Amino acid sequence: MSVALSDVGLALRCPRHLSYDLSEDLETLVDRVSRLAEEVIDASGVYRLDILGVGLGVPGSVDPNRRVNVRSILTGWQDVAFADVFERKLGLPVIVEHNATAMAVAEALHGAGRDAESILYLLLGKGIGAGFAQTGAGARCGAVEIGHIVVEPGGRPCLCGGQGCLERFFSEEPLRKMSGEKGDDHSQMIDAAMQSPDWSATYAYLLQALSTTVTLMAPERIVLGGFLNAAPDRFVASLKRDLAPRVMPQQRERLRIERSSLSEPVGVQGAATIALEEFFYNGASTARSGRLQAMKRA
């Protein structure tokens, strides 16, 4: 978990980090994150009233009002009203977004997707997920559950309740097992996995799920994030070579694959972008003022 203060140009100040176990009590985690946010504010020297609001990237789906983490398969969280909780603790308005979606929006507006009308942000970590962001007319964004596309019917049981999902083959745990636990960093992990006899089948599953997603959503750009941003050059070259023949010719002509161009922590860049869009660029100051007054009365 990373926390930082951003200006309107997405420059980050006073970043702080903490690690937590997925079995950690949620209330304890919220308290720890809140204290970390207070440390950031205090260290920045910025007056609290000059802070527009808070963006929070979460694993899993969120409600249409972007206030509740509806369900996170990875953590087991369900219907957690994070916006309400952090607004009470921090006294600032909060907006919640699916983490990969927030990163996709950041890449679309400030990073590798600035010259594309749509991007798919592919995020590899404990699991594998994606976010979609479209700019211009009819702009939209949303989570893409690529990790739960079934690539081996009847295969390994998945946390989502299905069987044979991509995530059971292509995410940190199975890749580490495939690599023989070699390498402390993620580029070494993927490089070692690529040398495993099981790599060919695993890579084929990734191509199957990714080509299906591209065919259905037609992004102009695929941005590789998380552990994939540190993947060896030969992995990226293989993906560029092997994905193209699997998608429609009209998609193939304009599709590009790139690494994330945003500086770390990219998750904070995504959360900050969502907050800036809500509280600054989209003219939500009136709603913000009303919510602040309501919080003060409470």
Question: Can you describe what's shown?
Answer:
The protein has 10 helices and 12 strands. It is of the alpha/beta class and 298 residues long. It has 2 domains: 2-101 and 264-297, Nucleotidyltransferase, domain 5, CATH 3.30.420; 122-259, Nucleotidyltransferase, domain 5 (2-Layer Sandwich), CATH 3.30.420. Strands 10-9-8-11-12 form a 5-stranded mixed β-sheet, sandwiched between helices. It has a 3-stranded antiparallel β-sheet with strand order 4-5-6, with no helix packed on it. It has a two-stranded antiparallel sheet with strand order 1-2. It is globular. 38% of the residues are buried.
Give a quick summary of the entry.
The protein is α/β, with parallel strands linked by helices and 298 residues long. It is 41% helix and 19% strand.
What structural category characterises the helix and strand content? alpha/beta
- In terms of DSSP E residues, the strand content is 15-25%
Strand order of the largest sheet: 10-9-8-11-12
- Mean pLDDT value: 89
Number of helices: 10
CATH architecture of the largest domain: 2-Layer Sandwich
> End-to-end span in angstroms?
29 Å
Q: CATH superfamily of the largest domain, please?
A: ATPase, nucleotide binding domain
Q: What order do the helices and strands follow?
A: EEHEEEEHEHEEEHHHEHHEHH
Tally the structural domains. Answer: 2
CATH topology value of the largest domain: Nucleotidyltransferase, domain 5
Poorly predicted spans:
285-298
- The Rg value, from CA coordinates, equals 20 Å
- Using the coordinates above, name the CATH class of the largest domain: Alpha Beta
Number of extended strands: 12
Q: Biggest sheet: strands, sense, closure?
A: 5 strands, mixed
As a percent range, the share of helical residues equals 40-55%
